[in-house]
Design goal:
single chain; 8 helices; 7-stranded antiparallel sheet; 4-stranded antiparallel sheet; alpha+beta; 26% helix; 323 residues
Length: 323
Amino acid sequence: DLCARDDSEARHIKQRPSWQVRSGPLNHTHWKRQPKTHWTVLLNGLNLHLPEADALLRRFAFVPYSRLDDIMVSYAVDGGGVGAHVDSYDVFLLQGPGQRRWRIAPPTQWRYVDGAPLRLLENFQPTEEFVLDPGDMLYLPPGWGHEGTAIGTCWTYSIGFRAPAGEELSAAFLDYLHARGLPRTLFRDPGRTATRHPGTLDPRMIRFTEQTLSQIRWKRADAARLLGIFLTEPKAQVVFTPRTIAPVSRFMQQLKRHGIVLDPRTQLLVHASTGFINGEAFAIPRGARQALQILADQRRVNAKTTGLAHLTSSLRDWMAAGF
């Protein structure tokens, strides 16, 4: 059912007669035409849709949420898998029902298969092998080659961690600086004389560019603010549904009775006096720091939480936005 939805990220991978990848949505009739062996389906962000999967993800809160990404579930029939590959981030592979054989190898100068629809390793030579039973878990650091093959029908849950690439952060930071306001000086060249070489890059314009770029300044606080916005930005397929909320008096009654819980799709991080929720930065209200930290850490707060009343306005806004 989740694979058939527009707000999910699913891929169906077949190995025979050659590697084939089809991205979702994958409707119900799609599965009726599949062979009995050698295929798998991957569904990213299972925790965004099922509270049970979100609860599983939160079991890995021994690392900061800024590093924790999502849970991908892999359902495979006998012989199914995605081939030998390597990830650039840490991953825990938790075996659900069924069994899967894992072959692994330490980092090396990996080569990839040309023309393949997946980044398959060409020179994969495993050094260890494990068969995972239900409840077993395998941890792989970044850069380790691995190949998982289903033994019969099986489910595997991959708990992935974020490792932002330098180019991602650089591009996001330039966008951030542009939104904050870059120098608006216009190029001027009074007293210019005729040139004998119009095809040569203008030295005056080079100096102007250098001087303009040298005016761009940022501090550690800017880096932290950009990172908070970047890490809490919802994924492309995530859509929040706005909702109507009760008047303040009734809202407070409900808050006292039930507390409040973050939607599984919501990302909330805190740094100093600034909070970040779903790609938006905000100043933490005076007296609300402790309550907001509990909400960010535990994903819920109860009515007895110290300072919760100072968050009332923000909580109403976030509930109205579907957060």
